[in-house]
Amino acid sequence: MKFLEEIVEIILQKYAGTSDTVTIVFPNRRAGLFFQKYLAARIAKPMWSPTIVSIEDFIKNLSPLKSADKLELIFELYQVFSKLNKSEENFDRFFYWGNIMLQDFDEVDNFLADPELLFKNLLHVKQMENSLDYLQEDQKELITAFWLSFGEKLSAHQKGFLGIWDNLYQTYTNFKIQLLEKGMAYSGMIYREVVDTMEKGQLNHGFERIIFAGFNALSRSEEKIISWFINENIAEIYWDADDHYLKDNKQEAGKFLREMKFGNAILRKSFRESYGNNFHQSDKKIEVISVASDIGQAQQASELLSTLNIPMDEQTAIVLPNNELLFPLLHALPSQVEKLNITMGYPLSSSLVFSFLDALIDLHLRGEGKTVYHFRSVLAILRHPLLSKERDEVVEKIAKEILDKNTIWVPKKKIPEGHDFLKQIFKDTKGDLSAYLLELIRYLAEQNEDEVEKEFYFQFYTLLNRLNEFIQRHNLKI
Predict the structure, then answer these.
(1) Neighbours of 464 (CB within 10 A)
(2) Which residues contact 439 (CB under 8 A, 6 or more apart)?
(3) CB 3.0-4.6 Å disulfide test: which of 74, 252, 336, 372 passes with 98?
(4) Phi, psi at 97, each rounded to 5°
(5) What whole-number distance in Å separates Cα of residue 171 and Cα of residue 89?
(6) Model's pTM, two decimal places?
């Protein structure tokens, strides 16, 4: 029986007639969707469904703080950082570093690390070594080696880094104070706030019964929150485990479960004596096939689906090594695959639309205020694979002429204004690149019939609109 089907049986047998009082917390939303499917298939008559949420939504609902979007958070951090470090750096230059700092702050809070200790400098290395007992030896060595790489004589760059580092704890503290005043927070901050509220005995939650299901690795804050609810006799937890991984210390896949079983007195009681050993089923067949390239993996998967007697349903899963193989696989799938459930994301930065917009920005930044375009920028646009349908004799002629004559700078007057497509791309931005990009995205989306590419255009259009509104609201100069 599948793990989710086991949870269905628990609901039907243990909570028959009171299922509407139960909240089931899964690691992600996808598990909840499949649980509902199995529940619907199992029942013979209508019933009230349990409330189903992801762990992220569950914890965020326990806090009065509202999760803000990344752009807003980094701007708040920029204000605090600039004031503390007397920095005159522009927001767009700060954004990259601000994103890294925000991620670090998020992890510090999510894992309930001591921020004051963590942000100490090399003058306190020994004190840090004695206080980082919760870290593994290789992690301690990495932190110590980093700080000891700063010798007695510091370079200007190292001095600047230490100056920022010395202010990092104050930046972290002031940043959180500023967010609290506005009722805003980042994810880890909410998690820590919920844990603090629990430990003070002030948490108001309103849940009657909670089931945590399907978890493996937990952050320190998640572990504390789940343990608190279990200790209060409000919740129970069911692990999706297997003896092969759980009982064999050599199996890294069972590392986090073993930490929960042997390192947490509350969670230890929730583990069964045995979960069975599905890995060593006699009918299991594993075949390793050598493939020369990433794209070849997608082609091989398609060939296996076509030639082997594999059911084309939810019993068959294709697990990709990275999300950039998603589209090569979709294009390679055999025609008999009529329906499929995609449960992975695809980054905008890996799309053809992204590389095309990137080439457009490069074109206009290099040509802004000039009467010429750099040939590399022009060819990157004319030969871009996204625009294969837009190429005609005029486009090919311009590209061929640039290459044949080894032209370095292409005069703007060489771009024919009567050509609708080229006119939209090589028009004057009038100093407003965002407005130009928004207009061009609308134009390209209207000309495009591919639904996937249209979705990418829509997402970029939404992001640009959001950025424009943000810049105007805060009167920023980018």
Answers:
(1) 17
(2) 424
(3) 74
(4) -70, -35
(5) 16
(6) 0.83
CA 185 to chain CA centroid, Å, is 18
What angle (nearest 5°) sits at the alpha carbon of residue 315, between those of residues 314 and 317? 80
Angle at 90 between CA 177 and CA 186, to 5 degrees: 30
pLDDT tens-digit readout, 147-186: 555 555 655 555 555 556 678 889 999 999 999 999 999 9
Place of tokens 């002629």: 397
Largest CA distance in the chain: 81
CA distance 439 to 459: 14
Looking at the DSSP bridge assignments, the partners of residue 23 are 51, 210
Instruction: For residue 425, give Cα distances in angstroms to 145, 360, 386, 457.
Output: 51, 8, 14, 15
| d(C-alpha 72, C-alpha 341), whole Å | 33
Tokens found for residue 168 = 């990092």
User: Regarding beta strands 372-374 and 409-411, do their DSSP bridges make them parallel or antiparallel, or are they unpaired?
Assistant: antiparallel
Q: Which residues contact 74 (CB under 8 A, 6 or more apart)?
A: 94, 95, 98, 99, 102
Report whether 439 contacts 464 (CB < 8 A): no
| Model confidence pLDDT, tens digit, residues 263-318 | 999 999 999 999 988 877 777 788 899 998 888 999 999 888 888 777 777 778 89
Q: Which residues fall within 8 angstroms of residue 311, CB to CB, at 6 or more apart?
A: none
Measure the CA–CA gap between 16 and 47, rounded to whole angstroms: 9
